[in-house]
Amino acid sequence: MGTGASKNPDSSHGGDRDDCLDHDGGQLYISLKMENFKLKGELIPHIYGSVPLVGSWDCSKALSMERESKSMWELSFVVPPNHETLDFKFLLKPKHSNVPCIVEEGPNRLLTRGTLQGDARLALFRLNGDEVLEYRVFIKADRVSPFDLAASWRAYKENLQPSTVRGIPDVSINAAPDTGVENGSPVTLELDLEHYVIPAPVTSANSALVYAANMTENPRSLTCGGTWSNSYGSSSASYSNKAGSALVDQSQSKKETEVMVTDSSKIYSTSGMVESKSVGTFSPLQKQDGQRGLFVDRGVGSPRLVKSTSATTFATELKLDTESKNAMPAAAGAVAAAAVADQMLGPKEDRHLAIVLVGLPARGKTFTSAKLTRYLRWLGHDTKHFNVGKYRRLKHGTNQSADFFRADNPEGMEARNEVAALAMDDMISWMQEGGQVGIFDATNSSRARRNMLMKMAEGKCKIIFLETICNDERIIERNIRLKVQQSPDYAEEPDFEAGMRDFKTRLANYEKVYEPVEEGSYIKMIDMASGHGGQLQVNNISGYLPGRIVFFLVNTHLTPRPILLTRHGESRDNVRGRIGGDTVLSSEAGQLYSKKLANFVEKRLKSERAASIWTSTLQRTILTARPIVGFPKIQWRALDEINAGVCDGMTYEEIKKNMPEEYESRKKDKLRYRYPRGESYLDVIQRLEPVIIELERQRAPVVVISHQAVLRALYAYFADRPLKEIPHIEVPLHTIIEIQMGVSGVQEKRYKLMD
């Protein structure tokens, strides 16, 4: 008679594996196989059942199994690890007809989290009379990282044959495109995508239009009269204060230098904490097999909360925020707990962190500083960026020649050390008022300068040096040209070539006396600008926050690519005004938008073979993405809408009527308000951090189809919006927000496909 269902011992079977399925992330790759050495005629094995496997017990819609060998038939599919039970059966159908169908004997088969419920059994089919056809059934469930799955799909598309990428079989991810007429007219999108462009908000992500150093912290030491309060000595009279003319500092100038970052697809960090008492080097060869799927989201789940924050608690939090500024970071959950532990343990100076940049000019220090500042602010850490070049221009003007930067020019050296000391003094003063992380942006290329900074910081803050090193002449030349084109230092130089010669002379002056960092705690980014290799070295780095900084730097690069953010098409709950839920798209507007979006993506990304589509696990985003073909689709539980807890499915009017205290608490502080047994915006930010890291790692375009609260948080990261603004950011339906990331910074464009 043969054996029954064979289970893979390495797959996720068994009761004690179920819980870790929810926490380890990834998806389940399910393989169903049927074997019979005595095939009967032209009967083809099929599978039919309920949602989400097939969606109908209609035999005509059954899924055909594919022949794997002469005697074996197979069908594979992917489901989330926490999927609802798959209820299905096998049937046999003639090759060229839908009838007659022969359904297997016995009860339905139930598959929960990759585990077959009940006893394993053969698939028995009763033919004419008493003849019974037997099939052996094999069921296998393997955990698959979404990114391994995407890599396998791309390999399949390129090779047009089953790939063996990391040993994972290929899966047909995309459904066939829907064609036809919607509401009596063809669903089309004009070839001119610009037709759909709408103005972006004034406070948008267009930071690339502004010189990065101009966006840094304004010097406190400058009074209206142009007098500097300074206890470290004054500069020579030959360098007069030109702050009156330099205060505007060429706001129309453009500048972003190339940042030295790594090929993060080859370099991994296994945790948020790095503990290294000697020099350690991250290199592409150190990635271990066990680290695959590192960035798969674990989700947050419902916090253990029986009732929401009361108005009294909100008043307390607001009081802490104003009277004891940043005694606790605004970030929630594990992020805040680890950061607070860092602040409470150890010497007083460890409660404040100074990231001091080191490197020759045109190595991307300012851009690295700006990007790191944006990331830490988004996580809820009070962070400011202090640029010494801005101090220098405000005090000594913008027209200093290369001679000003010579090491054998005592007046120039004194002036530059003076403004460095002023900037450091401002940063320390800000920290003593409650600031947490200061980014100190300057060349700091000599040991003497760094010793001066460490002496000033002693007992007040912990210093970590961040050194950027680049030996690629092509990248250096490109950065020099950007510097001369966009820096206020050369705004008054009409001759571009003369500016190039002056800057190269300035660079040569720095190179003569440059001393690499070998002291204290440091991070070195070596030849990582190209994104194709390089190293990241760490020395004497420990603690949660320094670990997160290392983790972020390892996983960022500057390959230009767009990221498209959009909400799902209008759902039935959108029409009803209900929050949360997991409804399908509305019959008209929602379904029409899904087709328009597919058309848009096809035209916008037609040359981007490696692009991918990311959705939440809720069906309204999955259905919105369904008409998009030709790209792998990845479901993230971290992209699910904010958990409304007991308020899920209610309208705001119902909440106001039945839960007036909750309604008022949310109204007072939408950022920190947590729905009873649900989430707050800060919780959403916490669970979105793996998504941000993966978006930074991606080198190809990504289309993110998600929900309003989630997209508000993602957009705030790219646009560098304050945390308090996140719950109020406008993310309208049926609109695409395109974030363009590249060497010139971040720019934004919006497309409105429907009213």
**Number of helical segments?**
19
Number of strands: 28
Secondary-structure-based class equals alpha/beta
CA-atom Rg in angstroms? 30 Å
Amount of beta strand: 15-25%
Sheet with the most strands: spatial strand order: 15-28-27-23-26-24-25
Mean pLDDT value: 75
Q: What percentage of residues falls in helices of 4 or more residues?
A: 25-40%
Low-confidence stretches: 1-25, 159-186, 223-329
Q: Biggest sheet, open or closed, and with what strands and sense?
A: 7 strands, mixed
- CATH fold annotation of the domain at 348-555: Rossmann fold
Q: How would the global form be characterised?
A: elongated
Which architecture of the domain at 348-555 does the CATH hierarchy give at level 2? 3-Layer(aba) Sandwich
The CATH superfamily label of the domain at 348-555 reads: P-loop containing nucleotide triphosphate hydrolases
CATH domain class of the domain at 348-555:
Alpha Beta
- N- to C-terminal distance: 63 Å
Biased composition (Polar residues): 1-11
InterPro entries: 6Pfruct_kin (IPR003094), 6Phosfructo_kin (IPR013079), Carb-bd-like_fold (IPR013784), CBM20 (IPR002044), His_Pase_superF_clade-1 (IPR013078), His_PPase_superfam (IPR029033), Ig-like_fold (IPR013783), P-loop_NTPase (IPR027417)
Region (Disordered): 1-20
Protein name: CBM20 domain-containing protein
